[in-house]
Structure formats: C-alpha cells, structure tokens
Amino acid sequence: MSKHRVSRRQFLNYTLTGVGGFMAAGMLMPMVRFAVDPVLKANAAGDFTATKLKVDDITKEPERVDFTFDQKDAWYESEVTNTAWVYKNEEGQIVALSPVCKHLGCVVAWNTDKKNPNRFFCPCHFGLYEKDGANVPGTPPLARLDEYPYKVKDGILYLGKAKPRKEA
Ligand code: FES
C-alpha cells in the first residue's frame, strides 16, 4: 500500500488553496486589464486613418465620409468603420464632425429635415445642430457634436479620434 496517503486535512487544504487561487486569478485579471488599458488607449489616440477624400474635393457642403481602421484591444482585433461629416468653413478650414448625437447616441445627418434646412438632424428625438456642430437650444442634445482632429498627407484627408469640442 502507498505511504503517501492524503489525510482529510491535507485534502481540504489542497482543495481550498486551488479554489482560492482560481478565484484570485478571476479577480486579478480585470485589474490587470484595467491597468494596461490606458496604455493601449494612449497609443490608439495618436493614430490617424486615411479617408478616400481628396482635400481639394472638400466643399462648403458637409459630405458624409466613411473610413475603416483596425482596432486592437488587449485580446481582440476588429475592423471598425467610422463616419464623419466633412466640409470647409467660411475661413476655408476643414471641419470633420462626428455623426453621433450627443443626446442618446443616434446618428445625425445633414439637411434631412425639410423644416430645418442646413442643419444636422437627429431623427430619434428630433435633435438639431447648426452646421458648425453647435446644438440648437430647445432640442434634446445638450452638447456640441464631437470633432475629429485631422491631418493632410499627399492631398488626402486623414482623421483621428473624435473628441468633444470646447464651447465656442
Ligand atoms: S438621440 Fe439624438 S435627439 Fe435623442
């Protein structure tokens, strides 16, 4: 007969240590991810993605531009398509606005509400924004549309990550 019989006390010790370790790992993993995430986000923030839009082709009329990029999360890689409304303002500067409504996140479009021409319109709760992205008082959105930072390279428009704008 084997001399290495496991006593009841030893068996309980091994079992509880194993279960405790498993539970500790389960609690630690989200904490590790939380600690690593800001590093990943900081890298992503510096990235600009090429659109198909030539800067010379941008007019004063907002145009919908879709652009796609690879997004890498800690364990997950995916292809993401974003949209911007792009135009040149009266000073000839490029403006690239996020279409995500600042009320509850629906998608706004340019000039689609016949009663409110030359404004961005959100059909979900009739939100309105001026051409420069300012929310129209008296409609549900309480903030301006976010704006994409941009770069121009070889005559092509590159867009970064949309950010909230300071009040004008
Ligand atoms: S989500 Fe746009 S108005 Fe409510």
TrEMBL record:
Stretches assigned to the Rieske domain: 86-159
Keywords (A to Z) from UniProt: 2Fe-2S, Disulfide bond, Electron transport, Iron, Iron-sulfur, Membrane, Metal-binding, Oxidoreductase, Transmembrane, Transmembrane helix, Transport
InterPro entries for this protein: Rieske_2Fe-2S, Rieske_2Fe-2S_sf, Rieske_Fe-S_prot, TAT_signal
Entries under Pfam families matching the protein: Rieske
Transmembrane segments: 12-32
Annotated SUPFAM superfamilies: ISP domain
Entry GO MF terms: 2 iron, 2 sulfur cluster binding; metal ion binding; monooxygenase activity; oxidoreductase activity, acting on paired donors, with incorporation or reduction of molecular oxygen
Gene3D superfamilies per record: Rieske [2Fe-2S] iron-sulphur domain (2.102.10.10), Single helix bin (1.20.5.700)
Function of the protein: Component of the menaquinol:cytochrome c reductase complex. The Rieske protein is a high potential 2Fe-2S protein.
Assembly with partners or alone: The main subunits of the menaquinol:cytochrome c complex are a Rieske-type iron-sulfur protein (QcrA), a cytochrome b (QcrB) and a cytochrome c (QcrC).
Family as reported in the entry's similarity comment: Belongs to the Rieske iron-sulfur protein family.
Protein's recorded name: Menaquinol:cytochrome c reductase iron-sulfur subunit
Organism: Mesobacillus zeae
